[in-house]
Design brief:
InterPro entries: SAM, SAM-SH3_domain_protein, SAM/pointed_sf. It holds the Pfam family SAM_1. Residues 4-68 form the SAM domain. By secondary structure, this protein is mainly alpha-helical. The protein has one domain (4-67): DNA polymerase, domain 1. 66% of the residues lie in helices and 0% in strands. It is globular.
Amino acid sequence: SLSVGESSVGEWLQRLGLEKYEQGLLHNGWDDLEFLSDITEEDLEEAGVLDPAHKQILLESLRQQQQK
């Protein structure tokens, strides 16, 4: 069973249509959206997000969430 933190990362990725990255992010310890706001491009690459367009989408989405 997933904790709330893990499922919210999955839900966020699903909303963006990038749920294929969930395993890599969770595997690297990015299982909480609170922590994800600190993620860098390098962190994303280590988690398997190599497509520059996808990195932009993820980083942009996190920036918008921080402004709320």
